[in-house]
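Below is a filled-in request sheet from our internal design queue. Each sheet records the structural input a requester submitted and the sequence that came back. We keep these sheets so that new team members can see what a complete request looks like end to end.

REQUESTER: design group, bay 2
PRIORITY: normal
MODE: inverse folding
CHAIN LENGTH: 479
BACKBONE (tokenized):
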């Protein structure tokens, strides 16, 4: 079967059964490189989500009592099965969401480490003993799973998000209902096959494919959901926050960004340049932690713009299966319009294009803008494309102030050889993550990943999810 023209129709995975959408409807999933039909997927309904939550609820009592060594074995086996099926996953990452092969391999490898790190959590669900003021009382906490976890994932790194969040939830004895992006349902369906074949019991993991803006409230507003993990745009995150508040459902929100990179005059430009390019052009800039603002000290500003523009103009835009290709198609017409409008608006209001600005099919060339000012939409809003702005600064202090002048607070970076300034920046930047002499784009399974303000609430990662997806119960024994 030609990977680009799969005619399969994906079904929902509920309670260990493949089922059509309740009303039998399906929708087309498009390959973003040329908008051809990649596959069809069940157009899940609110009732489908309610059935999935009910399935996860009824699976929970038995699943929570599974042994750590069983969950550990299932998750490690899932990683093995994925390795056996690597070619399918890579094809899917390329044809369903337009990942260049380098990004597809990167995401696939990350996914394996996420699964294995999750397996390591199973034996670490620990409480503690607590000294008691009451004579003869033995006091302790025990850590328990929360119950049913709703996981809503975006299109851009669907495998990383599924392997991390779903696996962490399952490792801790929770059951899961996932609503993947309508633009990447196949990757979650492949994961459902993997989890099932690895031995995860029926009902512990459920997937409903469909349109979040139509049916999402039936998941996040369901009183039988004990925790919501949402990754996506800030606008949708705000809505979900409001829906969850009604039932007091705890949640984490991993949202958008406008991540800054400050480059001081003592930076090693030779080393910084490829890292700067990775920060914004990987997967065509469709990464939440992409750096869409560069603040460069004036003595090296011209040189930085020149070199960065040169690097940008050489970024591969060929076949997605060619390892030299970096630039991905923008996922949908709606997103393409956003990227187009942001560039046009900036240019109309006086911004200069130092590199790129043109389109090749559904791909926007890596674009660097200078002379960007406040009244331009992209100055403050997330573009989510291969577009960045470079601003001159007169001092480190000005760079820090400008970097902090944003509603977002996800990732950040500084390039300098001055350790004092670097550490000062790390302490004073209002972002959840800071990389010194490294790109804003970085993630590992066990770190606390996440941001502040418009970039979200809470953190994810093995340690953070241990806190978020379990609760401590205080138990005493009067001896
Ligand atoms: P999106 O907000 O459009 O959609 C994300 C998910 O939310 C999809 O599955 C969608 O179906 C669902 N959804 C939409 N309305 C909903 C509702 N009312 N209830 C429940 N679910 C609903 O985002 P996207 O375009 O898929 O992804 C891009 C965005 O995600 C960018 O803003 C990016 O910065 C952000 N993102 C953040 C992180 C992070 O970890 N902080 C990681 C990846 C992407």
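RETURNED SEQUENCE:
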């Amino acid at each position: 079967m030609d990977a680009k023209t799969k005619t399969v129709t994906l079904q929902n995975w509920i309670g260990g059964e493949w089922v059509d959408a309740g009303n039998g409807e399906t929708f087309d999933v498009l390959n973003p490189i040329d908008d051809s039909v990649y596959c069809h997927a069940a157009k899940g309904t609110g009732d489908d989500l309610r059935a999935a939550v009910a399935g996860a609820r009824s699976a929970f009592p038995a699943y929570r009592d599974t042994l750590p060594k069983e969950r550990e074995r299932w998750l490690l086996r899932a990683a093995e099965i994925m390795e056996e099926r690597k070619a399918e996953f890579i094809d899917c990452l390329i044809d369903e969401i337009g990942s260049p092969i380098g990004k597809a391999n990167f995401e696939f490898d990350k996914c394996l480490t996420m699964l294995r790190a999750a397996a390591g959590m199973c034996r670490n669900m620990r409480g503690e003993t607590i000294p008691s003021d009451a004579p003869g009382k033995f006091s302790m906490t025990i850590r328990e799973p929360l119950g049913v976890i709703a996981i809503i994932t975006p299109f851009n790194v669907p495998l990383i998000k599924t392997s991390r969040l779903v696996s962490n939830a399952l490792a801790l004895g929770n059951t899961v209902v996932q609503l993947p992006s309508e633009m990447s349902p196949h990757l979650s369906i492949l994961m459902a096959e993997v989890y099932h074949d690895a031995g995860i019991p029926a009902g512990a993991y459920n997937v409903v494919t469909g349109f979040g803006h139509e049916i999402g409230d039936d998941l996040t507003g369901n009183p039988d959901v004990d925790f919501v993990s949402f990754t996506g745009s800030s606008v949708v995150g705000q809505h979900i926050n409001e829906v969850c508040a009604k039932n007091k459902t705890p949640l984490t929100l991993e949202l958008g960004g406008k991540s800054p990179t400050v480059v001081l005059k003592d930076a090693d430009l030779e080393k910084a340049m490829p890292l700067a390019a990775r920060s914004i052009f990987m997967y065509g800039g469709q990464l939440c932690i992409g750096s869409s603002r560069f603040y460069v000290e004036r003595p090296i500003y011209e040189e930085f713009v020149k070199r960065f523009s040169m690097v940008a103009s050489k970024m591969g835009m060929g076949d997605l299966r060619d390892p030299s290709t970096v630039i991905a198609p923008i996922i949908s017409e709606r997103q393409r319009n956003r990227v187009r409008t942001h560039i046009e608006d900036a240019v109309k209001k006086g911004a200069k294009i130092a590199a790129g600005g043109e389109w090749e099919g559904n791909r926007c060339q890596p674009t660097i803008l200078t002379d960007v000012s406040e009244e331009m939409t992209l100055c403050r809003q997330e573009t989510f494309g291969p577009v960045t702005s470079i601003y001159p600064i007169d001092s480190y202090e000005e760079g820090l102030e400008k970097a902090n002048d944003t509603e977002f607070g996800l990732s950040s970076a500084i390039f300098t050889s001055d350790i004092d300034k670097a550490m000062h920046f790390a302490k004073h930047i209002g972002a959840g993550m800071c990389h010194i002499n490294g790109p804003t784009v970085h993630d590992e399974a066990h770190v606390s990943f996440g941001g502040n303000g418009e970039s979200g609430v809470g953190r994810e990662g093995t340690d953070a999810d241990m806190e978020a997806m379990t609760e401590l119960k205080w138990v005493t024994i009067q001896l």
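SHEET NOTES:
- The two ends are 68 Å apart (CA to CA).
- Residues 1-6 have pLDDT under 50 and may be disordered.
FILED BY: M.R.
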